[in-house]
Protein: Exonuclease domain-containing protein
Amino acid sequence: MSTSTLSLTPPDSPAVDHHRGLTFPLPPLADPSKDSEGKLFRRQPFDAFLVLDVEATCEEGGGFDWPNEIIEWPVVLMKWSEMDSSGRMSALAPVAEFRSFVRPTWAPQLSPFCTSLTGITQSQVDPAPSFPEVLEHFRLFLVDHGLLDSGTGEPRVAYTFATDGPWDLRDFLVKQCWLSGIPLPPWVGPAVLDVRKLLRRCLGCDSAKREREREAERDSDGAGKHSPGLSIPCQLRKLRLDPFEGRQHCGIDDTRNIARVLAELARRGCTLEQNTAL
Ligand code: AMP
Ligand code: MG
Structure:
């Protein structure tokens, strides 16, 4: 009998997100299948991945209790590009990008620290759309790329967000929606694929117990996102990939490099499944 993070709901029946009343289609269960050599493998549960790494206003030394506002919303959409004869997905490739700066409204002036960290300037955010407007542009991107139904707003394929740690959606997005006075967008879904956590699992760096301890530490000091720990450059090194491309803490560059990590994990045969509830 196979297991899956979403296996409590019977296959083929839609999972209902009771918080938002949205019907979110379950990906197929990752049942073991056999490849051409008779070796068992798990089918990939998702067809599409939305890699996201937001940037936000910040102050030097500011932690997660600071009311950061999102100022960059960059996403790389990835889909499977290769499947072998036994149905094993082997290559994941970027197919589209969405990038928008966002105008902060609660504290519109960027600190010098924020600009030097992220490279984002006042002249980039001043003319940018507000956060609710960016969300609407992004929803249309999801419709245009066949992820959401334009009429019902329901997902049309099994997709998941993929982020470096849980913070982008669980902390930054939640905080921003509260500051903007809007509900969480229904298309986010109830869980996320934390790429950093998946990498640890796939490389066997962490026992499940050590992983839980690490999570508890990160959650208690709220510094996970800012701690050097398993930074994106470090993840690339661990996977023996080329070094970080672009500028660290530039949202679109961070996102593209996380996408490279995810593609490598896929190439190595890791099951790309959601591993963190929101
Ligand atoms: P990152 O994805 O690591 O670039 O970080 C996302 C956001 O977290 C940044 O845009 C900042 O708002 C915040 N952040 C990251 N590093 C720091 C830091 N050292 N001090 C304060 N805020 C930070
Ligand atoms: Mg970043």
Q: What stands out?
A: The domain at 40-277 is CATH 3.30.420.10 (Nucleotidyltransferase; domain 5). Residues 1-23, 219-223 have pLDDT under 50 and may be disordered. The radius of gyration is 19 Å.
